[in-house]
Amino acid sequence: MKTGQEYKDSIRSMNLEIYIDGDKTKNIVDHPKIKPAIEAVAKTYDMANDPELAEQFITTSHFTGEPITRFQHVPQSIDDLMRKVNITRYCNRQLGMCSFRCIQNAFVPILYITAKMDKKNGTNYHHNFIEWIKYVQQNDLLGCPAITDPKGDRTIAAHEQPDLDMYLRVISKNKEGIILRGAKLHQTGAVFSHEKLVIPCHTHRPGDEDYAVICAVPSDAKGIIHVSVRHPQDDRYGENVEIDLGNIKYGVHECIVIFDDVFVPWERVFMCGEVEYLAAVINMFGMAHRPTTGGCKTGWADVLIAATELFAENQGLATASHVRDKITDMIAITETMYSCGIAASARGIEMPDSGYISDPVLANNTKYYASKAVYDLIRLAEDITGGILACCPSEKEMNNPEIAHFMARFLKGVDTTPAEDRIRLVRLIENISWGLGSILHSATHGGGSGQACKMSIAEFSKMEKMRQQARDSALRLCGIIK
Ligand SMILES: Cc1cc2nc3c(=O)[nH]c(=O)nc-3n(C[C@H](O)[C@H](O)[C@H](O)COP(=O)(O)OP(=O)(O)OC[C@H]3O[C@@H](n4cnc5c(N)ncnc54)[C@H](O)[C@@H]3O)c2cc1C
């Protein structure tokens, strides 16, 4: 298994490049706006190598019998599903942000659907996908789920869009493989992932066969172009500051990935044109991925709660009853998010030819709840932190000899703690709330918008026996039926 350093070296040795701040750079690993995110991933590799964490992080590949990290494991039990939630919470609590290790959530859906397609059509997708998972496991690779298309006019089918590349598509096929054209947006960790696992974001209909493509592409394949996004406050990375970063060790990173006629050999293709299977695989991906929110956002929130509590202590408000009450509300919200993820996992089901997947209604409910709950968390953190959260001078003012003594006096809380400690906490709360490492955007749209989760809740609920039982009860209890 790779150490953090080996992971960084492996990324350095790839032929990766990105457009960022008006320039093209090949030095991904040391770029000030990307490095903090790479350090976060490296930390997860180091955690997996820590003997004290082995029980949590390491398992056995059911394909090869070799030890692998849980980040590359295909869940084979309910316990595996729960451990995924727990390990994500643990990682994110160490990092104070995203840990970039979600690729395995796509494994069961694709294994399941490829087996189904192969049985019906005699294709070889299932074998191809197993071989790719084994490759990822044996080389301890970081994968990025590349799902979100630009989509253009949301109401128009892919093949009717004025620009046919608004959804990633296959523009040609030959004996050796396929050629991809289009783009994927909002890609977390894509530029420092070894592999991109391309999946459609939409349940395309007949007519859109060219868009029904699932495949794996190395991040440095010819024709892949990365374009960095801007985050609120990311200029701070270039300002030679530390305190103002909030999280001085780790950061997030997203980019656009353009597929400028990228060749993919057939052995890396897991669906090509079978549009009728898309709804199942996309719905299943939601079921597999969304319970992770119960670990992901909670790990983040754990740090936000701690920072807010420490800040309150710094203001002399540790025992103020309304502060205790609000901190308890923050804990309650966080534990509800966690309970949703655990409950979805606990009601997991075994799928043929693949592994375990979480309960569909509870899985989608986890993400839907989190997409709203984080706003309450941040409201409470801001309430407790006061105006300083929005009105804090920069660290450069704190270091300016002409005014540093004023800053040291007037930015202080209790007399026993230096102003700098208080401001460090403010910046961390700012970072997690709406700054460089914000939980908000990731909770609102990452893993699918709240509305997408809600639509799935409505659909899957209809299939639940208890809904019919409840309707019968309602009719019986009010006397419409006997
Ligand atoms: C921080 C972050 C990280 C992310 N990481 C990844 C990643 O690693 N990989 C990846 O593939 N994606 C990633 N995403 C993308 C994420 O999955 C999408 O943002 C999400 O699915 C919503 O899609 P969208 O952004 O295109 O918004 P839109 O689809 O434009 O949605 C905007 C609004 O329009 C509504 N809407 C959309 N279509 C319709 C319609 N036809 N009719 C009615 N209403 C509609 C939606 O419900 C929503 O309210 C990330 C997003 C964020 C914010």
3D structure, described in words:
- With 482 residues, this protein is α+β, with helices and mostly antiparallel strands.
- The protein has a domain at 286-474: Butyryl-CoA Dehydrogenase, subunit A, domain 3, CATH 1.20.140.10.
- It contains 16 helices and 14 strands.
- A six-stranded mixed beta sheet has the order 2-1-10-11-7-6, with no helix packed on it. It has a four-stranded mixed beta sheet with strand order 5-8-9-12. It has a two-stranded antiparallel ribbon with strand order 3-4.
- The radius of gyration is 24 Å and the shape is globular.
- It starts with a helix and ends in a 5-residue tail after the last helix.
- Bound molecules: flavin-adenine dinucleotide.
- Flavin-adenine dinucleotide is lined by residues 144-148, 151, 154-155, 184, 186-188, 254, 441-442, 445-446, 448-449, 451.
Strand order of the largest sheet: 2-1-10-11-7-6
**Averaged pLDDT, please?**
97
Provide the CATH superfamily of the domain at 286-474: Butyryl-CoA Dehydrogenase, subunit A, domain 3
Order of helices and strands: HEEHHEEHHHEEEEEEEEHHHEEHHHHHHH
Secondary-structure-based class equals alpha+beta
In CATH, the architecture of the domain at 286-474 is Up-down Bundle
* Percent helix: 40-55%
Provide the CATH top-level class of the domain at 286-474: Mainly Alpha
Strand content: 5-15%
Distinct ligands: flavin-adenine dinucleotide
Radius of gyration: 24 Å
Low-confidence stretches: none
Main sheet attributes: strand count, strand direction, barrel closure:
6 strands, mixed
How many helices in DSSP terms? 16
Overall geometry comes to: globular
Give the termini separation. 64 Å
CATH fold descriptor of the domain at 286-474: Butyryl-CoA Dehydrogenase, subunit A, domain 3
* Record field, number of beta strands: 14
